[in-house]
């Protein structure tokens, strides 16, 4: 699905990744943990194609459908919860199913500024669930959510992406356990062979 070959990346001449190589499987869950600033989010942004490496090659199958939940919710404030989810799916029923999966069906007509931070987070998760795809990238996905809700949403994510790959970055050991994955510990800058 996706391969890094000697990929390097820097911000303002500060190396974040140096000659990193790995191949991702088509299915399963991969987790990354490490201190803030060690390069976890940058690694995800490179995988998603949102950053370009300074050296090396990233190869991804052209037909890979990628969904991503960023650290920020990235909701459009002039659209309701349902309309934010509808941006990535075909119909209102599909959007409602995704909102129901994150326990937000009753807030479908509410605008983001009228939702709590945790509710906004769930809309961002619902959008990824509605889109589906082959690869789901989760960057601190459960910020602001209580443990029971996290567990319920994780079950929906695992079911929705059962035939794809989930990449999870979090500081929470509890969140890794929800996905039954032992994370790769990163300390930055990230060097050498991963996964």
Mean pLDDT: 90
Helix share of residues? 25-40%
- The tally of helices reads 6
Q: Spans with pLDDT under 50 lasting ≥5 residues?
A: none
Q: Beta-strand percentage?
A: 25-35%
Q: Which structural class best describes the helix and strand composition?
A: alpha/beta
C-alpha termini separation: 14 Å
Give me the Rg, rounded: 17 Å
Shape: globular
Number of strands: 9
Outline the biggest β-sheet: 5 strands, parallel
In the sheet with the most strands, the strands line up as 5-6-7-3-8
SSE order, one letter for each helix or strand:
EEEHEEHHHEHEHEE
A few lines on this structure:
It is built from six helices and nine strands. With 195 residues, the chain is an alpha/beta fold.
Describe the 3D structure.
With about 200 residues, this protein is an alpha/beta fold. About 30% of the residues lie in helices and about 25% in strands. The protein has a domain at about 75-125. The protein is built from six helices and nine strands, in the order E-E-E-H-E-E-H-H-H-E-H-E-H-E-E. The strands form two sheets. Strands 5-6-7-3-8 form a five-stranded parallel beta sheet, with helices on both faces. It has a four-stranded mixed beta sheet with strand order 4-1-2-9, covered by helices on one side. Helix 3 (about 90-100) crosses helix 4 (about 115-130). The longest helix has 15 residues, at about 115-130. About 35% of the residues are buried.
Key structural traits:
single chain; 195 residues; alpha/beta; five-stranded parallel β-sheet; four-stranded mixed β-sheet; 27% strand; globular
């Amino acid at each position: 699905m996706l391969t890094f070959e000697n990929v390097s990346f820097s911000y303002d001449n500060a190396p974040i990744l140096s000659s990193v190589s790995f191949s991702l499987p088509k299915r399963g869950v991969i987790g990354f943990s490490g201190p803030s600033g060690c390069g976890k989010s940058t690694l995800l942004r490179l995988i998603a194609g949102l950053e370009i490496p300074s050296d090396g090659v990233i190869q991804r199958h052209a037909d890979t459908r990628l969904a991503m939940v960023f650290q920020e919710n990235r909701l459009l404030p002039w659209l309701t919860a349902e309309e934010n989810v509808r941006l990535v799916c075909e119909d209102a029923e599909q959007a409602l199913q995704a909102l129901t999966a994150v326990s937000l069906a009753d807030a479908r007509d509410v605008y983001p500024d009228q939702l709590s931070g945790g509710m906004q987070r769930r809309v961002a998760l619902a959008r990824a669930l509605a889109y589906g795809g082959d690869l789901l990238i989760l960057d601190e996905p459960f910020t602001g959510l209580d443990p029971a809700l996290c567990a319920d949403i994780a079950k929906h994510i695992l079911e929705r992406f059962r035939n794809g790959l989930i990449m999870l970055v979090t500081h929470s050991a509890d969140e890794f356990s929800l996905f039954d994955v032992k994370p790769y510990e990163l300390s930055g800058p990230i060097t050498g062979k991963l996964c």
